[in-house]
Amino acid sequence: MAHITIKSPDITLDEPTLIDGLPGKGLIGKLITDYLVSTLEMEYYAGVYCESIPPVAAYRSTDPRVRPPLQIYADETRNLLVLVSDIPIPASNAPDFAGCITDWLNEEGVTPIYISGFSETIEQNETDHPERLYGLTTGRGEAHLEKAEIASPHHAGIVTGPTGTLLNQASDDGLDSVGLLVKSTDTLPDYEAARIVIDQGIEPITGIEIDTEPFVEQSIDISPVAESALQQLGESSDGSTRAQPTATFH
């Protein structure tokens, strides 16, 4: 049975926002959440335990404490949570994982921001649609997109992988959530797409100021964490989240 265990009960949060960091196209969520944990000095808040997820031991730089591969970090001052995953979530485990997470989000009054990269087809005209960031919503999440002035997608499509399952579960349960879709590359961790999500999505939605200049500078070298996650995704494509356009019939 999947469950979430609070490790820092002294942290008090009031209807916080959660940033999704599941590995996916361009490793965008992974790059963002690892950066936020480090830059904002977030505290380890909870462990996420799911059946069939490999019980590997995760640890972070300069910290000897062993943690599960799925972790939630908190910033009490900023009323912020991030979901960090050090392994891909296999598609076969996504429904159980999404059900567990969504139940907890509902119980705790958390509004999640889910992140996915996508590629447009050659036929789609970037001159007509220059935006790189688009938004999806469930529940009453549309108000967040209006506040941040994030455009709706100009194409029909689907979000696959665990993040797609989370969005589907949020829709079924009526949970207020936001999905951020950003144009991304296929080959390398996409730091520029991650910066766009922070600057144009996370900052205006949460009202939290985040300095992305040091983050952009990291794009010169691929971090060991990102390189490892990229390799895992290449070996286990069913755990990769991505948004993809679909045919539209008129």
Automatic annotation (TrEMBL):
GO CC terms in record: proteasome complex
Domain of life: Archaea
Region span, Disordered: 230-250
A UniProt-annotated Pfam family: PAC2
InterPro entries: Proteasome_assmbl_chaperone_2, PSMG2_sf
UniProt entry keywords in alphabetical sequence: Proteasome
Gene3D superfamilies the record matches: PAC-like subunit
Protein's recorded name: Proteasome assembly chaperone family protein
